[in-house]
């Protein structure tokens, strides 16, 4: 899951180069995040760290929280999003349960 999030900016670039697989991955990621049941703080931390490309320290400064709090929020958020992908895999939606 974290690998997919780390590759977010590369996927965005690839979609503009006509890579339809990148488009599908981005749509699926957005859908998984929407369906993960994240709290507002979890979503904010995830957005700042992975989509806005801030360090956890910088995200914490924006959120008025410590780096440790941001780390915990991101860890829980990514686990929740991963569970959505795991559910899809169990339903035969074509996702593997590999590491990452």
Task: Please sum up the structure shown.
Helices cover 74% and strands 0% of the residues. It is mostly helical and 100 residues long.
Features:
100 residues; mainly alpha; Arc Repressor Mutant, subunit A; 74% helix; 0% strand
Describe this structure in words.
This protein has 100 residues and is an all-alpha fold. It has a single domain, classed as Arc Repressor Mutant, subunit A (Orthogonal Bundle). 74% of the residues lie in helices and 0% in strands. The chain is built from six helices and no strands. It has helices spanning 2-6, 8-16, 20-35, 40-51, 56-63, 67-90. α2 (8-16) packs across α3, α4 packs across α5 (56-63) and α4 crosses α6 (67-90). The longest helix is centred in the last third of the chain and has 24 residues, at 67-90. The protein is flat. The mean pLDDT is 93.
In one word, what is the shape?
A: flat
Structural class by SSE content: mainly alpha
| Cα separation of the termini | 5 Å
Mean pLDDT: 93
What order do the helices and strands come in, and which of them pair?
Blueprint: H1 2-6, H2 8-16, H3 20-35, H4 40-51, H5 56-63, H6 67-90
Helix pairs in contact: 2-3, 3-6, 4-5, 4-6, 5-6
